[in-house]
């Protein structure tokens, strides 16, 4: 059977309830004065109005999550001792795993080492999506260059207007050659 402690007469008294009410009012007032999130709300179109974090947005609109390509990388608040200790543990774990892998690789026979080096050449570190995107863009550039090369080397169809312009250009070239020859005769 559960023992019951004697009830504190002050708990539940009018004075206790009044102090609790005043503390709640003070807490609510302090919460009201804190900065609010400035991100746009999807539902209302106005500002979000959730309590903001240090960067000016709430936990729903960015908070401490990095944006862009570094969204998955952990961020540590280096002002708190627990975060620094957690980051140090993470760095130690990474160093230990690197040392362990180096020890394993040093014990490989030549065939295993060659296979490992082949694998390492084909599996580069970094974002695989970014590498795939760069590869697609490079392939697109090569195909565009090839298309341009083929288009520039292909004979162009002659239209009536183009034929007339080429005839005029040929006539002008021959007239220029005659004038140059006459000028050459005069000055020689």
In short:
With 188 residues, the protein is mainly alpha-helical. The chain has helices at 14-33, 81-106, 110-122, 128-153, 160-187.
Characterise the protein shown here.
The chain is mainly α and 188 residues long. It has 5 helices and no strands. The longest helix has 28 residues, at 160-187. The N and C termini lie far apart (133 Å).
| Main sheet attributes: strand count, strand direction, barrel closure | none
User: In sequence order, what are the helices and strands, one letter per element?
Assistant: HHHHH
What fraction of residues sit in β-strands?
under 5%
Mean of all residue-level pLDDT scores? 83
Low-pLDDT segments, ≥5 res: none
Work out the helix count.
5
**Residues in helix, %:** 55-70%
N-to-C CA distance: 133 Å
Which structural class fits the helix and strand makeup?
A: mainly alpha
Number of β-strand runs:
0
Oligomer: single chain
Instruction: Please tell me what the overall shape is.
Output: elongated
Radius of gyration: 39 Å
Which features does this protein show?
188 residues, mainly alpha
List the helices and strands and how they pair.
Elements (H helix, E strand, L loop, with lengths): L13 H20 L47 H26 L3 H13 L5 H26 L6 H28 L1
């Amino acid at each position: 059977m559960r023992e019951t402690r004697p009830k504190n007469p002050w708990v539940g008294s009018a004075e206790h309830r009044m102090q609790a009410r005043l503390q709640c009012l003070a807490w609510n007032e302090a919460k009201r004065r804190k900065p609010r999130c400035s991100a746009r709300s999807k539902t209302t179109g106005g500002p979000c109005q959730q309590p903001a974090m240090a960067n000016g947005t709430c936990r729903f609109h960015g908070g401490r999550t990095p944006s862009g390509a570094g969204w998955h990388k952990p961020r540590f608040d280096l002002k708190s001792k627990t975060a620094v200790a957690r980051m140090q543990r993470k760095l130690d774990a990474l160093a230990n795993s690197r040392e362990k892998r180096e020890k394993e690789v040093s014990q490989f026979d030549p065939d295993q080492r060659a296979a490992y080096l082949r694998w390492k050449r084909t599996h580069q570190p970094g974002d695989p999506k970014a590498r795939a995107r760069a590869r697609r863009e490079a392939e697109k550039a090569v195909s565009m260059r090839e298309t341009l090369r083929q288009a520039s080397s292909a004979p162009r169809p002659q239209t009536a207007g183009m034929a007339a312009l080429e005839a005029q250009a040929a006539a002008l070239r021959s007239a220029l050659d005659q004038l140059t020859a006459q000028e050459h005769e005069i000055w020689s």
